[in-house]
Amino acid sequence: MERLAVAIVIYDGVSTLNVTGPLDVFARANALLSPMGGYDVTVVAPEQRPIRASNGLTIVPDSDFTDHTLQFDTVLIAADLPHHDASGNRARAVWFDEQAIETIRSKAEPMVCTPARAAHGIELALARVARDHGTELAVRCAQQMVSGTPHHAPWSDSPRAETRSQLARVQAYVCANPGAQLSINRLAEVAAMSPRSLARLFVAELGMTPHDYVEMVRFDRAYALIAGTEMALKVIAHDSGFGTAEQMRVVFQRRLGISPAALRQRKRQPRTVSTIPRAQGIDHVLAHPA
Q: Are 278 and 286 in contact (CB under 8 A)?
């Protein structure tokens, strides 16, 4: 398989974890793949100047939007800034210059980090690896990140490490297959454990049920497609695993307070960013070591 080109798009105020997290995922994947089948990652900004992240870190991009020769297979937009709309009401939406993104998008698949998910970029990168090279490779990358081990360190055989491996396998499978039938029984098969044990593991390690995790991943997938593409909402609902546009609308209303149609309309309107949030910690992308 040929190497794939990935762009990580950054802006002032970006969460550093949405930049360094995907970079780490792709670097670990490269270490486990042949030189001919990995990823070439480029950090791109609107201008060729240092970018100040939300925690004060300065990031120097590799390129900028003026380079029209850039061609990518995937564009990950690492922007998750809250903003205030014209009426002064605080709203959550992806913040990026759509025209500028279009100059580098080419045939690329857009992947947009959603608001209030400081580690969402890690999930998106793992899902990309799973689609390109299979769930097992994505699981191994996730395991390494969870344990903090070097790229080629040997794995622990402790029971704790085994349960984390099972959990990482399920997470990677869900991220790579949001449109599949993801019942608790199916996820238990992927984890090679009973449905009851899997449910307990999710609550203990992630603080949520398997059902809630599946819905969260589907929501993120739908959000990215609504914000980054012009696909019909009913197609997005099917692709994301919601089944129907109505079911997707119900979930968006509950999680975000607005409908998918309203979110897309808001995305198309000019925005003024008035505040830059502090960096947020990892929520529940991966199980954390004790």
A: no
